Amino acid sequence: MEEDVYYKRTIVKELVPSTYLGENRALRIYLPPGYNELLSYPVIYCQDGEDFFNFGRIATAMNRLIYDHNADPAIIVGVDVDKSVRTSEYAPGGERFAAYCRFFAEELLPFTEHHYPVRTDSNERILAGDSLGGTVSLHLALDYPSLFKQVISLSGAFLQSTQARIAEERDLSWLSLSMLIGTEETEVSTGRGTFDFLEANRITKQLLVARSCQLEYMEKPGKHLWGFWQQELPAMLLRFL
């Protein structure tokens, strides 16, 4: 395969008007090779859209999966975030968290489905996020199970509020979750303090397994950095495609 085909990509930018957020939210949308609006495609929704494209290199990863592994071509919707309000939008209990979740489920999905030929079956939608982006992705699935059943978490910030939210559920056999955590993530500095993400993910794993979640859990040597996540992301995507 000619190396340059991996780097040929179509990325469209959009603005979604949001009543809940009181602003327009920027999206970057990857259209797969051979994109045809008469067809329909699985869709991957990424928190931290800019980071997933720039540091996670998700567009190049998707091209490789399509060309080399016969993966189902998918549309990727990266939802940008203003880093100054990221914690308030992505962290449970954050002042913009409820509004962001409603935007995601009630404004972003209809917008995308109106403008692009994405499949609307919940088994054809994947949520992906890193750190707090993994947190909000899991909460979206728990709060909107009819919409989201598949989640990719790169070192999710699954702290006490998320553990308590999972504990409210009795049966999570409908949820398919791919979790990655680095063994060196024992002291992760965040805007809200320093946390042991490794231990938090291990506790979360136990809670999920006890509720029959379809869980792929991976601990690997790595730090809380895109350099670690970028290497693992393609295989995690392939699981769902």
Number of E-state strands? 10
CATH topology: Rossmann fold
CATH superfamily annotation: Alpha/Beta hydrolase fold, catalytic domain
* Count of runs of 4 or more consecutive helical residues: 8
Span between termini: 21 Å
| Relative strand content | 15-25%
- The topology string of helices and strands comes to EEEHHEHHEHEHEEEHEH
Tell me, what's the shape? Answer: globular
Helix/strand-derived class?
alpha/beta
Low-pLDDT segments, ≥5 res: none
What percent of residues adopt helix (DSSP H or I)?
Answer: 25-40%
If strands are numbered along the chain, what order do they take across the biggest sheet? 1-2-4-3-5-6-7-10
CATH class: Alpha Beta
* Average pLDDT score: 96
Estimate nothing, just give the exact number of structural domains: 1
Protein name: Esterase family protein
InterPro entries: AB_hydrolase_fold, Esterase-like, Mycobacterial_A85_antigen
Pfam families: Esterase (PF00756)
